[in-house]
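re the bet — no i am not wrong, look at it urself. input seq straight from the record:
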Amino acid sequence: MKKMFLLKRDSNFNIVGDVLECNSTDSYRLARKVVKLDSASEENYNIVIPSHNILEFSRIIDEEDGDIELHIFNNKILFKTGNLKFESRLINGTYPNT
């Protein structure tokens, strides 16, 4: 998975079927990345992740790490790649419609 351009606000991850849509904004600009997933999700997700956690995760991973697994729970998300596990809390509420 290639690193996505992330701005300094919280990021929205919207998963529907086999499509992951990531949105991030800093109130002036909007960054958006749409990725086709290897397999379809059985459930649809619309979650908000704190920006500082996403930025830290993007600093840790390498382009060479390969696939990233997402495990989504009620109030947290777990990213797994290779021998790395990275957990973040989720923000309650909804992301503005972009």
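see?? The chain has one helix and seven strands. told u. also The mean pLDDT is 85. so pay up
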